[in-house]
Design goal:
One of its GO terms (biological process) is cellular respiration. By secondary structure, the protein is of the alpha/beta class. Helices cover about 30% and strands about 15% of the residues. An 8-stranded mixed β-sheet has the order 2-1-3-4-6-5-8-7, sandwiched between helices. The protein binds iron/sulfur cluster and magnesium ion (MG).
Length: about 300
């Protein structure tokens, strides 16, 4: 599976003894497989990995995969993960959030992570509903779709996550579909290699509650726009042109990348002289020094 000759990380290194609890044919299975494959292909050992899970169906996979893992508060995982990524840049930090938590109470964290350009990867599990709480409408549920707690549908307009993030001057935006593990793997690998905030939307199958756009609906529409030689992934205009999720087709792949904007820590002038990691510096300090004056 690995593309490098000296790779020592194996797929089995990321196995867990815990049993999955997701519904049959849930897209989370494919996403977990792709994340493991990406980590192995990039030769990142579990000891060097921090996987940060928000609350939601996807979050219930936090103990079903190897590596260090955190299961956070609803909508707040980006804040936690960005702090961890800054504390130790030698760790591969990947955070996961659902459309519910990320685009409602967590949307402020998403906005500021994109504009700050924290060096981490964020994977949005967009199953277009609150699956863990039995299928309520989220900000990505198609308008007027009957859902639990809103049998007549919700009238509020839908947020397109890719279009929204593209409006924030991001440095990496990608989209994939949970039905294509090899494609997700390559997109996640590209996100991991990018220095800055990598936003990856995965259109995720939820056969239990997302009846409006089921697996077959996606299969008929998704295509990799980057296979088109005229598509320029460094062009924001190109990305915005293909961002919409229409009834005809849905563009996937690395839709946009900006290699000219530095990540957050690289821009901090007061860090220029440091070769150490923040986490090491904290360990050398004693809180006592700072509290002496108040004793
Ligand atoms: Fe997956 Fe949907 Fe079941 Fe949640 S409710 S485990 S997202 S299929
Ligand atoms: Mg959801």
């Amino acid at each position: 599976m690995s593309n490098c000759n000296n790779c020592t990380t194996k797929y089995s290194d990321y196995f867990s003894d815990e049993l999955y609890t997701w519904c049959t044919a849930c897209g989370n299975y494919g996403i977990h497989a792709a994340v493991k494959r990406a980590l192995v292909a990039e030769n990142v050992a579990p000891k060097d990995t921090l996987l940060c899970f928000d609350v939601g169906c996807h979050g219930n996979g936090s103990d079903k995969i190897g590596g260090y893992a955190v299961h956070g508060l609803h909508g707040r995982i980006i804040a936690f993960a960005s702090g961890a990524a800054m504390a130790n840049q030698n760790i591969e930090v990947i955070a996961f959030g659902g459309d519910g938590g990320t685009l409602s109470e967590g949307i402020g964290h998403l906005v500021h992570a994109v504009r700050s350009n924290y060096n981490m990867t964020f994977i949005l599990h967009n199953n277009r509903n609150y699956g863990l709480t039995t299928g309520q409408a989220s900000t990505t549920t198609p308008q007027d779709t009957p859902m639990h707690a809103s049998p007549d549908g919700v009238t509020a307009t839908v947020i397109n996550p890719v279009d929204f993030v593209l409006s924030l001057e991001p440095t990496f935006v990608a989209r994939s579909f949970s039905g294509y593990v090899p494609h997700m793997t390559e997109v996640i690998r590209a996100g991991m290699r990018h220095t800055g905030f990598s936003f990856i939307e995965i259109l995720q199958d939820c056969p239990t509650y997302n009846k409006a756009t089921p697996h077959e609906w996606y299969m008929e529409r998704v295509y990799d726009v980057t296979k088109d030689s005229h598509y320029d992934r460094f062009s924001l205009a190109d990305a915005r042109r293909v961002a919409s999720i229409s009834n005809d087709k849905i563009a996937t792949g690395v839709l946009f990348q900006n290699l000219n904007k530095k990540d957050f820590l690289s821009k901090q002038l007061n860090r220029k002289a440091y070769t150490t990691q923040l986490v090491d510096e904290v360990q050398k300090s004693s809180v006592d020094e700072f509290t002496q004056a108040f004793r």
